[in-house]
Structures are given as structure tokens and as C-alpha cells.
Known about the structure:
The structure is a homodimer. Chain A contains five helices and seven strands. In chain A, about 30% of the residues lie in helices and about 20% in strands.
Amino acid sequence: MDVFDAIRGRRSHRAFKRDRVEFEKIDQILDAAQWAPSPANNQPWEFIVVSGSDARMRLIELSEQARKEGFVELHGFSFVRPVPYGADESPKSDLPPSDYSLSFLKNVPVMIAVVGNPEPTVRPSQVERVHDGYKYACSAAIQNMLLAAEALGLGSLWFTLFDRDLLNRFLGIDPKKHLIAIVCIGYPVAAPPSPGRYPLTTKVRRIE
Amino acid sequence: MDVFDAIRGRRSHRAFKRDRVEFEKIDQILDAAQWAPSPANNQPWEFIVVSGSDARMRLIELSEQARKEGFVELHGFSFVRPVPYGADESPKSDLPPSDYSLSFLKNVPVMIAVVGNPEPTVRPSQVERVHDGYKYACSAAIQNMLLAAEALGLGSLWFTLFDRDLLNRFLGIDPKKHLIAIVCIGYPVAAPPSPGRYPLTTKVRRIE
């Protein structure tokens, strides 16, 4: 598939067929992830492929629990209770995750947890890490995964509605590492319509 | 270009021809950026295209100044002086940026600053942002840019060797926003060899 078609055609899928995803395709997606750039090529990512139905169901239960408790992270935005409410704001309206259905997860055949390693693996004694290189690199890797899935006829979702502590324990993730996202993958029922984009002119400034 | 060829063929380029890059190609790269996913499709990115030679030279001067002062950020890793040296570590060896030549920047015809907006633009009263969604989204957008450049026969570099404060002032970036990276783009002299990747087996765990 042409790279521009993959970039423009990729959608956030929430409706999947129950069909199994071929191992070869998962490996192609993981290989694509690995070719992302990273600081000094330190490749600060790890992948946990969750495909068994018991494990997937447990992962879904844990996400559901996190959603109900209102202590969850939605695509990188955290919802924390209590939140600092203004006088004119209703606490209930501040907890959209309770309205966010996770039932679609039951049909996701493969979930890939992407874990970032904040420890630089290159020249560790020379680097004082106070920043986000590993998060940038993992995000680039995830984008490669989504594009690879699109090219292979699969749908995907960059999912972060989870409680990191619960998932760290369940997936056996070293607490020094950082769960960035769960990439959901499966054969889509249909491509959702595009939610659109702002006009480029509103996003671009030029300095000649 | 096939998406897998773009993903595997992309390199971090540091040798560029002085040839002008067509406006149309820059717009194709910016359009590709916009089709990245983002939290609730809030599109938390802005792009500053620096193509004039005066502005580029000033940007290079500022990067050079940051490098010399040892207060710089290299691809998401920050080098900060003073760093907490161990008894057996030499301070000098902790400042690799001083050995890192920026002379290649003089031949980069276009630099695109990618700026992230931490403010959620969707449901702001419902979201208590404490996390990194905008950084993830901007990184996915940058990866799209690098792949688009590759497909258009251009070379690119995800560049972060800069002092954010200096560049914020020069580029007129709202201090509430966050300069994520500068994407260098131009016609490459030659494709650098691949630095390789770790075997996938060392990076993947499977839970059935």
C-alpha cells in the first residue's frame, strides 16, 4: 500500500471481527515498529503481545475496573478523582470515562502493549536523562504499527484507557519502565468515517 | 512508495544537497503530519516552516550556542551542566554535545519546528491533563513527516539538539506550548547505511 494512502486511510477502529490475526502479520507489524527512529538508535521499546482469550479478558476486566474507579488514562490524558472542580462545575461531568464503553474490547483479537524504557542504553554515563526521548521513540514506533496494520488490511486503535499500576502488575512490567499504550489490532468490521482535520493554514506558520 | 519500504528505508540524514525543496512537497509532508492520531482528535500540533536562509542561519547559530553551553537536548535526552557526577566519572566525558558537529545544518534547506499544545482542545472542563497525550500525538505526526519525506525522495532528521528557551524566543512560540523537535528536510547526498536493529526476539514477549 502506498505510504500516503496508509497515512490518510488509517482510522481509530473500535469494531472488530472475531477472526484470528495471522502470526506473520503481527510479526510484520512488530518489525515495522522497530524501524522507528530513536535517540542514538537506543531502541527504547518492548512489546508484549496478548493474544490468548483468558489474558485478553483479564486485561479488559482491568481496564473496566480502571474506568469504573475513574482513575484512568485516556489516550494520554489522565482522569483523576478528585479533580479540582470549579464552583459551577459538576463532578459527574468531569468523569467522561464512566460514559465510555469498553465493550468493543471483547472483540479485539490481539493487543500489543508498548513499553518504553527510560534508561538510555547508549552512553549511559554520558547522558543525564531528564526528558522524553523514549516516549517520542515509542510513539513513532506505534505510528509505524498503525500504518503497517492499515497496509495489511487490519484495523487498529491506540488505546490508553488503563490504570498503569494494575497493568504493570498483570503484564509483569518492570516499574522502572513505562507502559505507553496498548495497540489493539484486528480485522475491522468497516472503516469508520474520518473525523476530519483542521485546515492546514490554521496549523502552519512560515518564516522565510 | 510502499509503506513498508518507507518504514524500513527511512534514515536519519545529516548530509544534504543545497537544492531547494519544492513547496508542494513541504505541503504534502505537513498534510501527512496532520493525519496522525491524537487524543479525541484534538490535533495538538503546530508547524513552523523555516526556509529562508537568514532565519535558518540564526536557528543554526542558536543550536551552536546551546551546544557550546552544554545545555542542550539531544533527541529528547537533555544534557545539563552540572550533572551529578560519580566519583569515578569525568565531567568532560559527560558532555558529548561538545563533540557533536552541527556543521551539517548549514546545508539543510528546510527546517520544520513541531510545537505541541498541552492544552486539550476537546472537552477542556472534563479533562485533567497530567500526561503526555500531546507529545505522543506530535511524535506520531513527526513519524508521518519522516515517512512522507522518504516517499518523496527527500532525506530527514528528527533534530532536538537545541535550547528550548532560546528557540521559543526566536520562533515566537507561546511558552505554554512545547517545542517537540525540529524536522530537517532536504535532498540527501546519499542514504546512510542502516545502524541496524536488535533482533525482534529480544524485544517481544507473548502472553497466550
